[in-house]
Amino acid sequence: MTVFSELRMRPATAGRSGWDASTTARLAMAGTVIFTLLVGANLATPLYPLLQESLGLSSFGITVAFASYVLALVSTLMLAGHWSDHIGRRAALILAVVVGLAGGWIFAHAEGLAALSAGRSLQGVAVALATGASAAALRELLPSRPEWASRFTLLASAGGVAAGPVIGGVLSMLPGPTTAPYYVHSAVLGGLLVPLCLLRARPAIMPGDGVRPLRALAPRRPSVSTEARGAFWLAAAVGFLSFSVFGFCLSLAPGYFAQIVQAESRPVIGALAGVTLGASALSQLLRVRGRYAVPAGLGVLGVSVLLLAASAAWSSPLLLVAASIGAGLGQGVAFRTVFNDVAGKVEPARHAQVISTVYVITYLGSAVPVLGLGWATAAFGLAASVTGFVALCGIAAFGLAVMTWRAATLQDARRGGPHQARRPA
Fold it and tell me: CA Rg, the chain, in Å?
């Protein structure tokens, strides 16, 4: 099928042709597309201080530019999170790459907050289009190993977000520090279009029917089956909290971390901003299981975010790095477990739609609290605002940890688990 016929949800007139890629190659492409788009969406993290100075933006302006990406991402997930079920995974990924190219180009040449926000918004649309498509594609390519499908999804997502600031910091050392990173990234995205266009697409799982197939692309009311509802809301809550921390790391944290380590190097600032996300990505390779994995991970996250504030009070770069790593590991274990739980309870035909809905709430965590943090910074200063923000995140993490620990304990009690005393014979 041609890309245009897929987008129109009409059968191709020509015979089936193209590259009949192996499962491994399709897995690699699905993960690489979402990874690369998220790298591009986060190239700007170490550049924000430079953009703030060159464009005369306030801290609140930086949070507005950051939040425009998240709000566009969330809106697109709500409106188009199910599209890949109808147009096919390949067409959705190609569309995402094209939109991502446009967003990066506009952001690189922005001369004010409006253009920055427009570029960031298009990047958000691109990531949203690829999120449900890549997650569903990985699930379909690994039908007998759903846990590894979830691991690959989160590894590609967290890895892309973590690598973005580091790559952006390194590429900013080239001539044209605010444009060079996007030129290089655009070349990589353009290269990805070649194998995607050559790939022989698999049929959509829910192609449009009737004379007006485009009706299938109309926005849908989010819904979750009764069996998956509890797992859905827990995954959404853990995701919201997680991305509140991530949103801080990717927006105001670069300037905050630079004060702690007394560094002005953009590669160093980018690396510090990406430590938490990198640890989260690497945690997908850890074999941590059991009903107590979620409360344990949340507990580690809670302690770690509180130590982030302590690292500033004590001016300790070592504690900053250790706390960032701990926060990423704790978040990664907890979110992977609840994400895998809800993904396993959703029927395949609705996987992209439900996972996109999880990400709607999750990504709101990296926009709404960060906007509040930006406002508080203007009113109370950066140090006081960050201290209050991480305290709230720590309290929320401990609250969720207690709730999930009690749920796990009750499950053990009902099943005669290790904490229940044996009855005498």
Answer: 22
